[in-house]
Amino acid sequence: TRFTLNFGDFTADSSQTTSLVHTYRRPNSYRPIMTLADSSGCIVQLAGSNIVTVLGSTPFFSVDKHAFCDSGIVNFVDYSISNDGFYSESYNFGDGSPPLGITSGSGAFNAAHDYDQTGTIVPTLTIVTTNGCTESYSDTIKIHQTPHGVITATSSYCAGPVQFEGSLTGPVSPMDTVKWAWDFGNGQTSNVQNPVANLAPGNLTATLRTSVTFGCSDTTGLRTTVFPPPGIQGPKEITTPVGIPVTIPFIYGGDSIVSYNWVPASHLDCPTCPDPVATVIFSTDFTVTVTDIHQCSVSDSVLVKTVCNADNYFLPNTFSPNGDGVNDYFYPRGTSLYNIQSLTIFNRWGQMVFQRRDFPANSATMGWDGNFNGRPAPADAYVYVAEVICENAQIVTLKGTVTLIR
Question: What CA–CA distance (Å, rounded) separates 383 from 369?
């Protein structure tokens, strides 16, 4: 014979164990039934004479709202049942407020609670029966924080690109994601937290709508004036002799300009003046940034290009090597000259009468003293060729005639 023991709670055991322990998980009355079968297939059921009664309660409540924004009153309706009576019923509303309870209960303990904090709240109803059986039931309420936006800008409100920043007056719950919706009133919109808007001069009305996924939202606005940038106009390029000062002529307009800033500041007599004087050796790009009373700024650049020209070098057309200490030598001279690569002099028949290489400029004794082969050269007109290296590394070839006077 084999048997199966049905415990009356929709569970059974057919292990053929004759001494069993079973746990009943719900309060109720249960009648165990044994089903026996013999080898011929005959089956008979034996019902025990005793009913197993499990004492306890099944607490349950419903709420009229499971999610809302910021704060609100939640109504609790009690649907609890018990087969052992209600000694007490108690609500823990999950927000740190004192519990609300009654003794004795009735299974219809309804309540209302005002929630004023955000986050995930877990209220619980606990029932104690007449014989001390305790059971609880919990639910979840999500209270979402409405995000209140704040509009700021990282720079002054000046025409052109302006970086805006969106922030909140306070944090939102980690369960929520904030959405940003910008409208700058000129057809430009954005859905990022920190957008860049291209603004034109005039009145600006910008709005920011902040919301969370659940739907809580708030709108804030900004009204301000967008100022035009200062006016600035100047040449793109200035050509100047090497090392000779030149004024950078710029014209400015707009509201009162409060500062000028030239970079690089080196080689300028006044890097904070509107029209500084530049003294440069190599061609240099200078940039000026001007700022007006509204803190609006604009920049412009100019290339100061250096050339080595007649303003930098000089060769006389006569010299008199008579030993009086005046104009006794023929040599290249000038300003911002790095070196003389060569100086060659020919007579009228093409015969080279003097040559010197690699010597400093403005060095009289390195020039021609009027002698040829150790003797004074005759008074005459001579042809010269000079290769001059200027301080900007430019090489200039100079050709001409010089008259030797005796």
Answer: 15
Alpha-carbon distances of 76 from 27, 128, 140, 346, rounded to whole Å: 24, 19, 12, 118
Radius of gyration of the chain (CA): 51
pLDDT means per 10 residues, the chain with 406 residues, are: 92 93 93 92 87 94 96 96 94 96 90 95 96 96 96 92 95 90 95 96 95 94 94 95 96 89 96 96 96 94 96 96 93 96 96 96 95 95 97 96 95
SS3 of 364, please?
helix
Rounded Cα distance, 163 and 197, in Å: 7
Question: Under 8 Å CB-to-CB from 150, ≥6 apart: which residues?
Answer: 166, 167, 168, 169, 220
Look at the block and give the residue holding tokens 């000129």: 186
What is the value of pTM for the model shown?
0.65
> Residues 15, 18, 19, 25: what is their CA dihedral angle, to the nearest 10 degrees?
50
Q: Which secondary-structure segment (H or E) carries 52? A: strand 52-54
**CB-based contact 91:111 (threshold 8 Å):** yes
As a dihedral over the C-alpha atoms of residue 330, residue 335, residue 340, residue 344, rounded to 10 degrees, the angle is -30
> Omega into 230 within 30° of 0, i.e. cis?
no
Comparing C-alpha atoms, which of 228, 187, 181, 224 is closest to residue 204? Answer: 224
Range list of H helices, 257-309:
none
Token pair 């803190």 in the structure block, residue: 295
Please give the backbone phi and psi of residue 366, each rounded to the nearest 5 degrees, phi first. Answer: -90, -5
Contact 29, 51 (CB under 8 A): yes
d(CA 303, CA 278): 11
